[in-house]
Design goal:
The complex is a heterodimer.
Chain A lengths: L1 H29 L3 E5 L3 H20 L7 E2 L3 E3 L3 E10 L2 E10 L5 E5 L3 E4 L5 H7 L4 E4 L11 E3 L2 E4 L6 E6 L4 E5 L5 H6 L2 E5 L4 E4 L2 E2 L16 E8 L2 E7 L11 H10 L4 E5 L7 E3 L2 E2 L17 E5 L2
Antiparallel strand pairs in A: 1-7, 2-3, 3-4, 4-5, 5-17, 6-21, 8-19, 8-21, 9-10, 11-12, 11-13, 14-15, 14-18, 16-17, 16-18, 19-20
Chain B lengths: L4 E4 L1 H27 L7 H4 L3 H16 L4 E4 H27 L6 H22 L1
Antiparallel strand pairs in B: 1-2
Helix pairs in contact in B: 1-3, 1-4, 3-4, 4-5
Classes of the chains: A alpha+beta, B mainly alpha.
């Protein structure tokens, strides 16, 4: 034992240190929470917004309140109209939320636990409920990356460029596609950006498909569950989520997703985080079948959502 | 400090080469299984992690063992050479895991820095001994 220890102590000690560091690094990446900024309670903001809206409604309608029509696949009031349809293409179920809003302020984003940080995560449905969202999809999972612009609801959280193709949603509700290498986050903010997503790629630009059959997200080679958002016209959008990784639905490639969105009449479309993150929430329930491993239907915790609400 | 140096005999070199065979095979198998269950998401780091024990370990010692020339190494070289292979291999697998999950970490750089330091010390110690 003494001789073995003498001969191998460097290897044993270094092996233990290497293993310990790797365990710490894995915990740091996947588990240890780093909170950088916590915002005002979303419930308070929503209560205030709803109160303002009720006052406006009463003023406009001379006492009559805004009438809502809510079904399993439809939501309609004076300011927001959403209809959910399910499509079957490429051996995959695709869920489309057609959204018309009266104000660009109804297109919002929210952070998990109302906090900007790394490993600060929650289910899309939980974040949606906390923010009184009518419709929500998962965002770009900014917390999985250490670089890439993050602007949410007009607040700049991260300005380090990763070189991605980003989606910009401006204050008037229009969409733009930019490259991080060509414009800074501060310049985008000054240009009126309300939301910036750093995932991609852009699927459709100027009504033309902008991905090829070979294009993929990072290192994903094949069909997967997908989440995308598209701009059809002023204050008219589509939120698209596809199933995947199951026998019932194989999932979509980026090109298939772009082709599908083209049929919806989308002028600008952008791919958000997919795979196990892909989730669509509508009126208190999950519309799609989120899965990471293809066997268990369960939401994956994410950093952020895009939603429609007041 | 006097560094102990020794001529690496053919048998010793081949014995060292053999140690890297299961390590290489394990890395190949680990990468293959990990890729198989990652829904088409791939990482070259994960796929090629086996290259370090294969080339830096197995082939390196095989060449030493089959060479007609006698090689002399000190303990610092032997220890730092092994440590650098271990560091690069684990670093590649770690980076592969992050790639496949779709995330990044600045801690990856620690592996590259430590690995380069070890291999530099090994090379310097070998050159100084000559």
């Amino acid at each position: 034992m003494g001789k073995f220890w003498r001969n191998h102590r460097f290897g044993i000690i270094y092996g233990v240190l290497l293993a310990a560091f790797t365990i710490y690094a894995l915990l740091d990446v996947f588990l240890i929470t780093h909170r950088y900024k916590t915002l005002e309670n979303p419930q308070q903001i929503n209560d205030r917004n709803m109160k303002d809206r009720d006052i406006n409604d009463r003023n406009m309608n001379d006492g009559n309140t805004n009438e809502k029509k809510i079904t399993e696949t439809e939501y309609k009031d004076d300011g927001i109209a959403i209809s959910i349809t399910t499509h079957r293409m490429y051996d995959t179920d695709i869920y489309v939320a057609d959204v018309k809003i009266s104000s660009p302020d109804n297109l919002k984003t929210a952070l998990a636990q109302n906090t900007y940080g790394r490993n600060v995560k929650d289910y899309t449905s939980v974040i949606a409920r906390e923010n009184n969202a009518i419709l929500a999809i998962n965002g770009d999972f900014y917390g999985a990356q250490s670089q890439g612009y993050v602007i949410r609801n007009g607040v700049l959280y991260r300005s380090s460029a990763k070189g991605n193709e980003d989606l910009v949603i401006y204050a008037d509700g229009t969409f733009g596609i930019i490259e991080e290498s060509k414009i800074s986050a501060e310049e985008l903010l000054n240009a009126g950006a309300r939301q910036v997503f750093s995932f991609g790629p852009a699927l459709i630009e100027k009504s033309q498909i902008s991905v090829t059959e070979e294009d993929e997200v990072g290192k994903a080679m094949m069909s997967n569950p997908r989440t995308a958002i598209g701009f059809i016209d002023d204050l008219h959008y589509v939120f698209v989520v596809s199933d995947g990784r199951t026998r019932a639905s194989r999932g979509l490639s980026l090109y298939e997703l772009a082709q599908f969105m083209e049929t919806l009449g989308v002028k600008t479309a952008y791919n958000l985080d997919g795979g196990g993150s892909s989730t669509m929430y509508f009126n208190g329930r999950i519309i799609n079948n989120p899965t990471t491993d293809g066997r268990t239907m369960k939401e994956r915790s994410v950093s952020d959502i895009v939603y429609i609400g007041y | 400090m006097i560094l102990s140096t020794s001529v690496i005999e053919k048998e010793q070199a081949l014995k060292r080469a053999k140690i890297y065979i299961p390590i290489t095979l394990f890395c190949m198998l680990f990468g293959w299984v990990y890729e198989k269950y990652s829904f088409g998401v791939y990482s070259n780091y994960m796929i090629y992690a086996f290259v370090f024990p294969l080339i830096g370990g197995m082939i390196f010692w095989l060449l030493i063992g089959t060479s007609k020339k006698k090689f002399r190494f000190n303990n610092i070289f032997l220890k730092c050479h092994s440590a650098s292979i271990a560091t690069f291999t684990v670093g590649f697998i770690f980076k592969g895991v992050l790639d496949i999950y779709g995330t990044t970490s600045s801690l990856c750089y620690i592996y590259w820095i430590v690995g380069i330091i070890f291999i530099s010390i090994a090379v310097i110690s070998y050159l100084r001994m000559k």
